[in-house]
Amino acid sequence: MNDNLYSVFERHFPADRTKPFILYPDGTAIRYAELDAETARLANAMADMGLVPGDRVTVQVEKSPRAVALYLACIRAGFVFHPLNTAYQRSELEYFLGNAGPKLVVCDPHSLALIQELCADAGIHHVHTLDSDGFGSLSQAAANQLASFHTVERKADDLASLLYSSGTTGRPKGVMLSHGNLSSNAATLAGLWGFTAEDRLLHALPIFHVHGLFVAIGCVLMRGASMWFLPKFDPAEIIRLLPASTVFMGVPTFYTRLLATPAFTAGACRTVRLFVSGSAPLLGETFNEFEARTGHRILERYGMTETGMNTSNPLDGERRAGSVGLPLPGVGVRVVDDDGAPAAPDSVGQIQVKGPNVFKGYWHMPEKTAEEFTADGWFRTGDMGEVAADGYVTIVGRAKDLIISGGLNIYPKEIELCIDAMDGVRESAVFGVAHADFGEAVAAAVVLRDGAAVTPDEVIGHVKARMANFKVPKQVHVLPDLPRNTMGKVQKNVLRDTFGH
Fold first, then answer.
1. What total of structural domains would you count in the chain?
2. Range of 422's domain?
3. 3-state secondary structure 290-352
4. Chain-centre distance of CA 325, in angstroms?
5. Torsions phi, psi of 289, nearest 5?
6. Within a domain: residue 123?
7. Is residue 122, in this structure, part of any structural domain at all?
8. Whole-prediction pTM value?
9. Residue 467: which CATH number?
10. Who is most buried in 283, 325, 339, 361, counting CB within 10 A?
């Protein structure tokens, strides 16, 4: 049996291929037969460019149904899908293109000149465009292709997607996700969360990371279900479409913004059977306020780029505020102390996971891969947490100082390197502070060289010109020195305590 993720999905397509897969807010639809034909045309077009299984396809485009079809076409043809956040700027793109080594780059028409320049420098010969309406040179190249394509044979261990993650040191790392990683996680979640062919997901997430791409779309395809497809989160549009939906997935920011909208009532949720939250911690007060307003208890789960989902609160059973629930079927979760010994129930330690969802390793970084796995094969997540006696997992912090703002991962070291390159800056420390809307916001402490005069606004402007907007510090504090412990390590906890209120 073919382990290609597309083949796995196709085995669950509805018998009646005229059933809608994607529904537009205006009522028009893309049906499963059209999805199959479009992925075939795109796969044929890319094959005609000379791409072969294993080649990377880097994609930085706005959210659209054709962008979903492009993802599935890459998987179907055995190419490695490499999505990028649309906010990434020149220096970030230069690094990703050089590191991933794609054969094809697909970008928004507005960024074509920059992408062509970077691709010329990197020796990448194929560049195509795709806009937010699904038009561009790639769709033109696919228009006259055959609407049939023999899905490439893939084994479960073959590479399907390359996403980038990072710790607090160094540049982002390429996370290698296999067909088996993605299919096992999607199948588990679709079953655990009770998805059926009758479900209609309300999709308002971006599709360049695990939550919106693999979790949400994966659950829909694993059951031949359908989804409303919004270009972005819009509270008014969400409230309008909820009564015609059965499932909603969001980051905590979505829920706080819905609760801030008076029109969001229990009546708007009357047909919804499940609200899921992830990508960042859900505050207990948000959980409780949501239940009081709607009667629904949000289902929180826990995952990461390297593993997909690891735990989930139950569909039937207690959904515990502040907890990310129980390990998924087939996934092992353990908490260990600093010596690697099992931690006692309800005591904090390092979270490690093991299962078919766990990635193959870091792209071109065998030493780093080996470092992140234990001798007995468990992946060190870098998260700190505890497991209750009844198995519920709670995340208490991040060992690697990762900042999660609005569901997006932000790695302090990358921003520190940018700030440290400024004339007049001696050193910097970037850390997260609490933010009512985004969960966390980026803050920076900066120490200047003797006699230098650099203002907080200049630091913000410097980063803004070079990095995605979500990485730009919301506050900058100029200090005489950074707080350090006796070993000389910067105490970011002191900075958070000082400036985080």
1. 1
2. 403-499
3. HHHHHCCCCEEEEEECCCEEEEECCCCCCCCCCCCEEECCCCEEEEECCCCCECCCCCCEEEE
4. 20
5. -65, -40
6. no
7. no
8. 0.87
9. 3.30.300.30
10. 325
Name the residue type at position 202: L
Rounded to whole angstroms, the Cα distance separating 491 from 168 reads: 14
Q: How far is CA 35 from CA 10, 17, 68, 69, in A?
A: 10, 9, 9, 7
- At 329, list the tokens: 């079927």
Contact 199, 247 (CB under 8 A): yes
Closest by CA to 272, choosing from 215, 193, 344, 371, is 193
The residue behind tokens 């309800």 is 346
Task: Determine the longest span between alpha carbons in the chain, in angstroms.
Answer: 73
Q: Checking phi first, is residue 368 left (phi over 0); if not, alpha (psi -120 to 50) or beta?
A: alpha
SS3 assignment, position 310:
strand
Dig out the tokens for 426 from the structure. Answer: 């001696």
Do the Cβ atoms of 415 and 444 come closer than 8 Å? yes
The phi, psi pair for 60, rounded to 5°, reads -130, 90
| Beta-sheet strands, E only, within 368-415 | 379-387, 393-398, 403-405, 408-410
Whether residue 414 is contained in a domain is answered as yes
Q: State the Cα–Cα distance between residues 306 and 210, nearest whole angstrom.
A: 9
Other CB atoms closer than 10 Å to residue 480's CB: what's the count? 6
Q: d(Cα 444, Cα 462) in Å, to the nearest integer?
A: 13
Whether residue 194 lies inside any domain: the answer is no
Cα distance between residue 98 and residue 29, in whole Å = 38
Amino acid (1-letter code) at residue 96: F
Residue 224: CB atoms within 10 A of its CB come to 23
Strand-strand pairing, 361-362 and 379-387: unpaired
Nearest to 153 by CA among 230, 216, 76: 76
Q: How far apart are CA 219 and CA 225, in angstroms?
A: 8
Instruction: Give the strand pairing for 308-312 and 299-304.
Output: antiparallel
Strands 361-362 and 173-178: antiparallel
Coil vs helix vs strand at 401: coil
pLDDT by residue for the chain (501 residues), tens digit each? 999 999 999 999 999 999 999 999 888 999 999 999 999 999 999 999 999 999 999 999 999 999 999 999 999 999 999 999 999 999 999 999 999 999 999 999 999 999 999 999 999 999 999 999 999 999 999 999 999 999 999 999 999 999 998 544 467 899 999 999 999 999 999 999 999 999 999 999 999 999 999 999 999 999 999 999 999 999 999 999 999 999 999 998 899 999 999 999 999 999 999 999 998 888 888 999 999 999 999 999 999 999 999 999 999 999 999 999 999 999 999 999 988 999 999 998 899 999 999 999 999 999 999 999 999 999 999 998 899 999 999 997 677 677 889 988 787 888 998 998 999 998 899 999 989 888 899 999 999 999 999 999 999 999 999 999 999 999 999 999 999 865 466 888 899 989 987
